[in-house]
Each structure stands twice: as C-alpha cells, then as structure tokens.
Write a sequence for this structure.
C-alpha cells in the first residue's frame, strides 16, 4: 500500500489531509488554499473546471456550473429531497434510467457518481501537484446518516476518479479521531457539525481507545445556505420597497445577491456591522442602472437566524435522548463545519451543552484531518518529512481539463470569464466568492407499494464484530502526532452505528425492522418470513429505511426477488432474509428459501444507479487523461 490521503468531500467545500512525519496536515492547492469549493463547471472553451475556479463561474454560467451535487448523489428523482431541490438548481437535472437523476451540462449527460468523480479527480491531482507523489489510496468521509446507496455511490465516484477506497468513514467519527482523545481515556463527546446545507449531531463514546458512535441525528435541510437566504430575503424586501422591483425576477441578479449575502454573513462572524453595494443590480425607467447599498448589523442577523439555530439545538436534545444521556454526562464537545464560526451558534451550543467547545482544529479541516489519520492507521504509510519536488509541475486547472472528453461548444453570451469584485459590484474585503443558493423544503412523498409477507419470530442475532485501536495523543503545538498503528488491528478500528432502522415490508402495509437504528456496524441480522398467500411462487422483498411501523412513512431502498418457490399453503414455505452492513456502512441483502436453499443476493443499488459496465467505461474515460 502506498500513502493514503483523507478526503472530506463536503456538500459545499472539500478538504484533503495527509499524514507526514507523524503529523496530520491539510493538503493545500497551488495557491495555498486549504478548502476547495465542491463545485465543477463546464467551460465553453472545453475545459472542465473544479474547485474555486468552478465556483467563480456560478454567477456567469449557472447552467453549466454544478454545485451541491452531494445532495443528489445516491438519491432517486422521486425521493423526498429531490422532489423540491431539482427545481431550485439553475443547472438541469432530469430523470435518467431507473429514476436516478442525470445532470445535463454543455451538451453532456452526467450521472452523479461521474460529477463527484470529477471533483475527486481534481483533488487527487491537487495532491500529486502539492505532494509530488501520486496518491491512489483514500479514506473518504460521508455524513453519518448517509444510507448504503449514498455510500456505495461515493465509492463508485472514487473508483472512477482512480482511487482505491480504503474506507468510507463517518464525518463525526473522523472529527473525533482528529482530536485524538487518546491516552486510554473514557469520554463521551458530542460532535456538532453545522455546514453549508446540513446539520448533524453525533454522540461518540471513547473507552480504552475504542470509539463507539452512540447516536446520530441531523437535519438534511439546515445549514449556512439557509442563513444566506435570510439575508437574501431581507435584501430583496428592501430593494422591492425602494425601487418597486423584485430582484427575484432576474436569476443573474439573484445569484449576485446570494454571493454577496454569503460574504456579508461570513463578515458578520467578525464584525458588528457590514455594508455592501451591488452596482447596476437592476435598471430603472429609461434603462438607468440602479446600485443597491445594503447594511446589516450582527444583532439583526442574529435575530433572523435564531430560530434556525434553535432547531439545531432541538436536534441535539433528540440525539442525547437517543443515546440515553444527558448533557452533564458528556465530557467534550467538538465543533465542525463553517457555520460554527457564527458567534450566535457558538453561544447557543455552549449554553446548551454547558461547556466550552473544542475548537483547536479549524472546523473546516477537522474532518479531513481525522480521515488522514485513519488512512494512515490503515496503511502505516506516511509522507517523509521533506517534501519531494514534483518532477513536472502541473497546474490544477490543466489537470482538470484533461478529465474532460468532448464538449459540444455552447457559447455563453456572458461577459467575462473571471468575475472580479468590480463585476459583482461588491464593496467588501476579499473573501471567498459565492455560495450556492439555498434549498427550500417540501414534505415527504408516500412510499412505494409493498408486498404481502408475514413475519415469523426473529432469528437470534449474529455476533457483532468489534475492533479496537489506539487514539492519538495531541502534541503541544496543536497539531497531531500519530503513533504507529498495527495495520491489521486498524482494519476494524472504529465502531460505528447505522443511522436509520432497516427492514422489509410485510402484509398490511407494515414494516418489519431487521436492523435497528443505531445498531453497531459491521452487523448481520436475519429474520424468517413466510409466504402470505396460497400457492405463492415468488416474493418480492422490499427493503425500507426508517423506524416507522408503516411502510409509507419509510424510504424504499431497493428490492430482492426470490422466485421458484414451491406452491404450497400460505405460511408453509419459510424465507430467511439476511441483512448485512459492512464497515463502510453499505447494506447487503440476501433472501434464502429455507426449503431449497436457493438464494438471491443484492447489494442495494451498489453502483449508485450505474451498472458494472457503465462504471468500467467511466473508469477508463477518466483514466485516459
Ligand atoms: P459542508 O460540510 O457543507 O461542505 P462547510 O463545513 O465547509 O460545509 O461549511 C460551509 C458553510 O460555512 C457555508 O455556508 C459558509 O458560508 C459557512 N461559513 C464559512 N465561513 C464562515 C464564517 N466565517 N462565518 C459564517 N459562516 C461561515
Ligand atoms: Mg462538512
């Protein structure tokens, strides 16, 4: 095994870290940036851009600039989240084969694993450039509540990008690892992660260097984007009041407003008042350009977002309840995600948890640092102290261009490629440009139909496999020293839990849980079922995620068909359904006819909607560059 990096592939931003000379550190890009926006853009000139260069095109070429793709990865068009977000994206998302989303950009059709692969490949090339060595192996983090489809889609994306995935690791677990509450401590910690689009809270227990996730809860639609949107609404309201014109009618103006709103928000984390001017944001009577000056205080901003922040606190309460703990039994609190820089968020969190949070590691980087530490513990390989100089210096953008195949040139009638501050009419100090637009919510659609089956008493659970490993002591300098770890022992390093219950649909619209929410993984559980009608010769086993007894309140993940059943009276033929979740949190399901031993296996949507041939074609497409 070679050197492996840790990648935090975030909805908004991504970060890469590596262990070098016993220390975990962030891999910067050629310009020294430590965080890369998770955005890709198809340039009219034929290049495929990723990271900041792609994000800069959000205002000028929104149709061909893809952001927040992590939200779409591993989901079906019919899913709850997709139902309302697709309409909100300026880029085109349509329904592909088997109901999976497909993105159209500049004449190409791309699956979500492919889009994610372009981002990952960009990060991989950044590593080669910065570190001077090719990196083939990776630990990638995902939200603790990612289901198996989303996890396997992430794996497929990494495969297309040319990575060998050593492990899919939960983000909060990575954050906890980065802090290395080592030294045989027994601690219970809360990881509060407020990012761009999502909020997650996870309670983790450390016992004699073993990590165990006790509970995890979150909000799929609560993040920094919502704070931006509050400012956007206020700007729109004021502009409408002053000029009788709704900026919402002009998508380009709105994108500029969103960009500025995010900058204002970030500024308000440090300043009490921020003022911004958007030049020529609209045109008045006779085509006269209108500038828009907007001023907001931190106090006002805090009053606008307080209810949203309180929602995150309510979720913290829920997660403590799930773990059967109260605040006083926690020993530590870790803040993760860019939105935890907001003073109001810090105040509320501190008040609820009744303690000072740990913030020694940058909240944007802590997950990647933890992933790198884990990658190192799996390979035992680290970068030497002295960085080798790359033989052939490459530019990140050049590399990204190579990713791209044929582009049908759709010229954009827009002004310049590089938006300057002038361009955006913004009078603010330099900060990172534009955030993706916020995404509103919609209610859950009903779950798909179910089969008729009746459950038998549950089979005895199979023993869980548990592993243990050392957690890392923090050194005086605030970065992290890594003890050498036995790679074999490390392969079962962390105990994790499955975030949602998993079960099958049974007769009468019920859902029978096979694996319960928060069960430690890896895990295998089985249950016996029987046919529910006379002479039934096949069963379709619908697999659901969720805790409800009613199927319609849960989410359909996939289906296993078992045919060739001997015609018999209902209840006579027994079928054993086995659910197995591996260390990456990916679910495998098999159904066995107890009479004949005939079995049907499935890895649910293992390839994120792509079949093996399609994945191989993409692997070779992207390896040619
Ligand atoms: P994700 O995990 O979703 O990729 P991050 O953890 O990188 O996201 O968080 C991104 C969010 O953090 C964005 O909404 C961004 O505007 C916000 N953010 C970053 N810096 C600050 C800051 N200084 N003040 C307030 N919000 C910030
Ligand atoms: Mg994150």
């Amino acid at each position: 095994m070679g050197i492996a990096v840790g990648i935090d592939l975030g909805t908004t931003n991504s970060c890469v870290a590596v262990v070098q000379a016993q220390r975990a550190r962030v891999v910067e890009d050629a310009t020294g940036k430590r965080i890369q926006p998770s955005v890709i853009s198809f340039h009219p000139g034929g290049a495929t851009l990723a990271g900041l260069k792609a994000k800069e095109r959000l205002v000028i070429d929104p149709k061909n600039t893809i952001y927040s793709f992590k939200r779409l990865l591993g989901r079906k068009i019919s899913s709850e989240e997709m139902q309302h977000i697709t309409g909100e994206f300026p880029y085109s998302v349509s329904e592909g084969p088997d109901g999976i989303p497909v993105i159209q950009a500049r004449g190409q059709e791309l699956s979500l694993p492919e889009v994610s692969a372009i981002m990952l490949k960009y990060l991989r090339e950044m590593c080669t450039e910065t570190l001077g060595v090719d990196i083939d192996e990776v630990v990638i983090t995902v939200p603790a509540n990612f289901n198996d489809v989303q996890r396997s889609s992430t794996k497929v994306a990494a495969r297309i990008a040319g990575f060998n995935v050593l492990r899919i690791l939960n983000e909060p677990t990575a954050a906890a690892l980065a802090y290395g509450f080592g030294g045989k401590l027994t601690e219970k910690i809360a990881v509060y992660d407020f990012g761009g689009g999502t909020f997650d809270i996870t309670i983790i227990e450390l016992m004699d260097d073993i990590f165990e996730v006790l509970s995890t809860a979150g909000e799929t639609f609560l993040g920094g984007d919502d704070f931006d949107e509050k400012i956007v609404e206020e700007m729109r309201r004021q502009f409408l009041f002053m000029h009788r014109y709704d900026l919402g009618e002009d998508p380009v103006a709105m994108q500029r407003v969103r960009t500025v709103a995010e900058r204002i928000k970030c500024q308000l984390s440090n300043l009490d008042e921020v003022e911004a001017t958007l030049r020529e944001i609209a045109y008045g009577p006779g085509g006269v350009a209108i500038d828009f000056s907007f001023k907001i205080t931190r106090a006002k901003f805090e009053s606008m977002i307080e209810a949203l922040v309180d929602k995150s606190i309510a979720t913290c309460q829920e997660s403590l309840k799930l773990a059967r703990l109260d605040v006083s039994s926690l020993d530590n609190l870790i803040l993760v995600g860019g939105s935890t820089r907001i003073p109001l968020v810090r105040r509320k969190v501190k008040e609820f948890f009744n303690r000072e949070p740990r913030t020694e590691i940058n909240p944007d980087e802590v997950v990647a640092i933890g992933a790198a530490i884990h990658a190192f513990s799996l390979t035992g390989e680290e970068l030497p102290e002295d960085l080798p100089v790359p033989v052939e210096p490459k530019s990140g953008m050049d590399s990204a261009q190579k990713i791209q195949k044929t582009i049908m040139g759709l010229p954009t009638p827009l002004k310049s490629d590089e938006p300057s501050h002038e361009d955006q009419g913004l009078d603010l100090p330099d900060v990172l440009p534009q955030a993706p637009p916020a995404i509103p919510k919609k209610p859950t659609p009903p779950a798909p139909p179910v089969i008729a089956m009746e459950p038998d008493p549950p089979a005895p659970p199979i023993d869980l496999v548990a592993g243990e490993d050392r957690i890392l002591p923090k050194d005086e300098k605030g970065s992290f020293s890594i003890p050498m770890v036995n790679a074999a022992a490390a392969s079962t390093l962390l105990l994790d839990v499955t975030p949602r219950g998993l079960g099958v649909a049974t007769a009468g619209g019920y859902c029978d849980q096979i694996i319960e929410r928060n069960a430690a993984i890896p895990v295998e559980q089985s249950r016996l079922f029987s046919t529910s009608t006379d002479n039934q010769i096949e069963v379709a086993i619908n697999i659901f995620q969720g805790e409800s007894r009613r199927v319609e309140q849960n989410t359909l993940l996939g289906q296993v068909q078992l045919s060739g059943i001997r015609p018999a009276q209902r209840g006579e033929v027994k079928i054993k359904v086995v659910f197995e979740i591996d260390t990456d949190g990916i679910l495998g399901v098999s159904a066995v006819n107890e009479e004949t031993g005939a079995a049907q296996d499935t890895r649910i949507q293992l390839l994120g909607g792509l079949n093996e041939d399609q994945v191989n074609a993409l692997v070779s497409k992207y390896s040619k560059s």
Notes: The CA atoms of residues 128 and 402 lie 14 Å apart. The longest strand covers residues 273-283. The domain at 498-613 is CATH 2.60.34.10 (Substrate Binding Domain Of DNAk; Chain A, domain 1). The radius of gyration is 25 Å.
